[in-house]
Structures are given as C-alpha cells and as structure tokens.
UniProtKB/TrEMBL annotation, chains A, B:
Name of one Pfam family that matches: TetR_C_43
Start-end of DNA-binding region: 39-58
UniProt region (Disordered), positions on chain: 196-216
Residue ranges annotated for the HTH tetR-type domain, each copy included: 18-76
UniProt organism field: Paractinoplanes globisporus
UniProt keyword Aminoacyl-tRNA synthetase present: no
Alphabetic keyword roster: DNA-binding, Transcription, Transcription regulation
InterPro entries reported in the protein's UniProt record: Homeodomain-like_sf, HTH-type_TetR-like_transc_reg, HTH_TetR, Tet_transcr_reg_TetR-rel_C_sf, TetR_SbtR-like_C
Protein name: TetR/AcrR family transcriptional regulator
Length: 216, 216
DNA sequence: GCGGAACGGAATGTTTTGTTCCGCTACCTA
DNA sequence: TAGGTAGCGGAACAAAACATTCCGTTCCGC
C-alpha cells in the first residue's frame, strides 16, 4: 500500500507531482488573467515546469481553460456567499464587489468564455453565481443603500469595465481598480440619482449568455 | 493638363481611387475599433477592395495603424475644442466625455499604441490633447461641478473602462456605454464625495506614456 | 535492481498573416 | 484610335506563432 509518510510531503516523485499540480494551476491563473490568449508554453514557463508536465494533466489547452473557469466560478460563489453573511446590506455589497474585482474573477470566467465547451457543472455554477449576485444587490437596494433602476445584469458590465484596467504591475492594478470602483459605487448610491436617472436599458441575460457560445 | 471635370466626380480611375482612399480608412477605423488585432485582409474586405488597393496606399500595416492613430488624435482634439466652447463648464465636461466615448477615440489611439513607432506629429497631438482635457476638467472642477481629488490622468482610465464594453452590435454598445458613463459621471459629482474620498492615487503621466513604447 | 511514472525540451504539423507578384482592365493622352 | 500605365484583384510566398506529440532521461517506489 502507498503509505504517505513524511517523505511524501518533503520530496519524492509523487509529492513533486502534487506540488506541480498546484504550481501549474496557479501559473495558469496569473498568466491567463494577464493575457487571456497567452500560449500554453507561457503557463509552463511561469510554473517552472516543462510542457509535458502540463500536458500530462490536461489533455488540451481547452481542458485547462475549462478547469480554470470552473475555478473562477467557485471563487465567485465563495465571495458572494461570504458577502451574503455580512449583516449590513451595503457593506455586504461593497465587500462583494471588491472581492470580485480584487480576485479578478471576471478575467477568470467571462474572458475565457467561448474558448471551451461548457460542461453542466459550468452551467450550474453560473446559475448559482447569478442568483447569489442577485441577492446581494437586491438586499442592498431594498435597504435603500443602492439606487433603483439598476438590475443584476448591470453588475457584469461593471466588472468588465474594472477588469479592463491594466496599468503597471499587479499592485498598481489593484490600487487603480479600487480607486475607480469607488467612483462606480458612489454613482450607484441613491443620492446619485438626483443627478438624473440611468439612461438606456441593462443587458438581457440572453445578451450575457451569448458570450459563452463557442467562437472558434 | 488633367482637368478634373464632372467625370472625375462620377467615375474614372482617378475618382474611384479617391473614393477608395476614404473607404479604406473608414473600413480600417471600424475594423480596428472592433478588433485591434484584426488582420489586414479584414480591412480590405470591409472596404470592398483587394489587398493590393490597400498596400498601394500604405507601405505596411504599421503605417496604416499610425495613420489611424493620427486620425484618432485629431478627433480627440476636435471634440475637446468643441467642449471648451460650451459655456457651462459641467455641460462642456459631459459633452466632452460623451464625445470621446461615442466616437470610441480611445480604441483609435491607446488600443493601437505600441504597435507602431510614433512620429513627432503623434507626440505633438498627444500633448495638445492632454492639455485640452486638462482644461475641460479643471474648468468643471473650479466651477464646483466635479469633485476634487481627481486629476486629468484619471480620465484615460475612465475611457479605458467604457471602451471595454463590447456587447451586441454598435447600437447597443453605444447605448450601454452611455448608461455606464452616467454612473461614472454621477460618481464624479461633488455630492458623491460625501460617501468618502477617492482612495489610491491616479496614474502618473509616465505610467500612461509607457503604453506608447513599442511592444513587438 | 527494475519497471515505469514523471518530466524537459526538441520536433512536428498546422494555421494565421503580412507582404509581394502577376496578369488584367480600362482610363488617359497623344 | 492605340499604346502606356495607373490602379487593382487575388493567388502565391515566406515567416511566425502555436498546440500537440515524441523521445530520451531520471530516479522514485516496490
């Protein structure tokens, strides 16, 4: 029997491989967040492994992207769940938005969409994520902390905007995104409505769903 | 002597070529706005001409991009100039922002940056554009219509965010961008400051300038 | 001590794309 | 009216990028 003793943790082919599992996924995350069309070789290099180590784990680039997206959806759900548990609705909303933006979940999900065929698990998580975001927003609105005329389909458009900020290193990017998230949040408060109502109409769920249909 | 009579306007190789000049530049604008990395062939197809018609006018893709960017900078300057002439500072500011966003000037300039070596004319126009934007913003701030703590280097970050909205056809994109521009603008008004000051620091001009250094 | 898991990296085949080239059309000028 | 040629369409070409495969090597695990 394979007894996982101390050695398994310290060294050994098996343990090294397990560590590579994490290294590769972490590298894929940072690489594809920075550049959604990065070549596979970049991920391997960032992980400090050869290409074959990557292809041993994922049969194709598509599979890697699918896994990464799953990872992103799980992060979304976790962040939204945590925000639901914050007692103050406004604070919960802010924590939610900041969490999504800080973790760059949008780049891990929507920016990878259309590059792999979604599994039922993807769909299920996406539905759950949408429902949770709905709840966080509506709770904040009903408490009077967020202006009306805003739907939950407006939120992805805000992530999308903030995810587009890519200036400088990771630290500066995060700082800038928080800065402009503050502007968005100020514009979403009820007092902002006195400057005029929101014009136009929010995207429909179908509009948003269309981004998941395979492109190539 | 070549007398440009009526025929020149209606037909003739010369006139057709002149019309192609415009068609190609217009096609390049729409194509590269939609997809900054589009291949040259796409531009020719959108213009309804062959590839050679394009290469007769521009010696390389790089030259085409450089010309397009020049075009974008001129549009920026024109929009800013017009905004300066609006008497009400806030209205001028709004008109300026809406003009930049509607014309997608950001996609015509920053999104093409780093793909060609800028000429002195590029630099000159960029300086002029920056100065004009400065003026529009400061005028609005000094009239008390825009909150403090905001610098003119914040503005490109806002264009960048709005330019990232790409959902549906041209019409819907414009509608959505206006919708979220409203949110930004509400967040920039003095009343929004009561929800807290802007955190972090705006980018430096050097940060912004770095985007113009050749990449490939 | 040996079988094979794990791996690094070169090699491969394909796709994409910028640019050139060739033959053709039809305007312009003499 | 006839040759010269500007302008053009699109095939052809070469180079680059990239996903994926393959092979030789190492060294863990039994």
């Amino acid at each position: 029997m394979t007894d996982p003793g101390e050695r398994t943790v310290l060294d050994g082919r098996r343990a090294q491989a397990a560590r590579n599992d994490d290294a590769i996924l972490a590298a894929a995350r940072t690489v594809f967040i920075a550049e959604p069309h990065a070549p596979v070789g970049d991920v391997a290099r960032a992980a400090g492994v050869g290409i074959s180590a990557l292809y041993r784990r994922y049969p194709s680039k598509e599979a890697l992207l699918a896994t990464l997206c799953l990872d992103g959806l799980r992060r979304f759900v976790a962040i939204a769940r945590r925000a639901c548990e914050v007692t103050d609705p406004w604070e919960g909303f802010v924590e939610f938005m900041r969490g999504i933006v800080d973790a760059d979940v949008h780049s891990l999900t929507v920016h990878l969409a259309g590059r792999f065929t979604p599994t039922p698990e993807h769909r299920g998580l996406a539905v759950e994520a949408g429902a949770l975001a709905d709840r966080v927003l509506h709770r904040a609105q009903q408490s009077g902390a967020v202006r009306g005329g805003l739907g939950s389909t407006d939120l992805p458009m805000i992530y999308e905007q903030l995810a587009a900020i890519r200036l400088g290193d990771t630290g500066q990017i995060r700082e800038l995104r928080r800065r402009y998230l503050d502007v968005h949040l100020a514009g979403l408060r009820p007092g902002a409505a006195s400057y005029g109502p929101l014009t136009g109409t929010a995207p429909t769920p179908a509009d948003l769903g269309a981004r998941w249909t395979r492109t190539a």
